[in-house]
Amino acid sequence: MSTSEIAAAQNADLSRAHDEEVDVENGASNLKRKRASSLDGRPRHQWKFWLLRNYAHSQGGMTLFNEIVEHADKEKDSLRLETSANPKLVGDLISALWGDKVKKVRRGQRIDRKYCVLNLIRKQGQTVQPPDYDVTNDFQQLAKNDTFQLPIGWYKVVDNPCRISFVHPEPLEFGNQRIYKEIVMELSPEKNVSFIVKSHSCELHLSTLNVERIVKDLTVSEKTEVVLDFVNTSKLCLGCILPEDDSIRSLIPHQTGVLKTLNNSEVLTQNRAFSSKCQLFVCYAGKQCSKCSGVSRTYKRRKGRRETGESFHKHCNKRYLTKDEIFQQLQEQRKLNRKHDQEKEDDQSPGSEDGESNTSDDSGTEEEKD
């Protein structure tokens, strides 16, 4: 993908993210919000990982679409994947992964035409771990190998013999710092290889996606190639737009800052927030992960409560309130205290009058007797 295409795609992502925020702000249904926040679910990532492990782009190649679906259906149970791969899901993922490089066509006789995917083939001859496979040696060879083919825009950093980082700069800046996609690859003393993805001060362990079984039989180099393709083709979560009122705060831990594009000065900068537990990837460009959606919802709830003048609970912890909200809480408490004091005075006044009247009545009775 060329630099101009990447820039256009990134600008489109920001535009879609803003449109999504406006749509929710204007009263989108709860069902739509739930769908938007669930797009970062594991099943879709798992099948995306599976496609990258088993299929590759090849100019002039061709694969029957039904064969891909049947292949996925056969391996679902053995890999313990969470959902079935229906034709619609497979078609969406193929388009997301390879875009215009592949094309869905019909081939065969007129009475028996079948759908095929042009320029896509099933991988053959992948290196499977032999019984005496030495993970440590393969890891160290990858660290020393300068000919290992990386996707465009990525570069490798060897931190130590047991840690390799793959870094890709994104055309985005958040909080005056450039955003990167970083894959940290580590070899443990037990000879297990782990992958951690980092971006905008958040991280995601690929083990949380339950994709290890898909690539467990591959060598270190083959695994790395699949992980690089997965991260390179994944869409980053762009957080949520902050309200204009700076006094509104969300209780969910998050970081705020200005997000801007570096390759197009015409795109407006936006004040955005990322959850401290941001899940990094979303399945569709411009969407939010479920954690950042939670931050957005708390902002909107607090904004709505302020607009409607809803009062806070009298025992609400003041560290969760803004200065204005604390002042409002104190004013309401003073009103309650004055009301309580007035009621207490009213209760005491009639009692004292009755006591005086009773005393005068008793004295009058004694005078009559005399």
TrEMBL record:
<feature type="region of interest" description="Disordered">
    <location>
        <begin position="331"/>
        <end position="370"/>
    </location>
</feature>
<feature type="region of interest" description="Disordered">
    <location>
        <begin position="1"/>
        <end position="37"/>
    </location>
</feature>
<feature type="compositionally biased region" description="Basic and acidic residues">
    <location>
        <begin position="331"/>
        <end position="343"/>
    </location>
</feature>
<protein>
    <submittedName>
        <fullName>Uncharacterized protein</fullName>
    </submittedName>
</protein>
<feature type="compositionally biased region" description="Acidic residues">
    <location>
        <begin position="344"/>
        <end position="356"/>
    </location>
</feature>
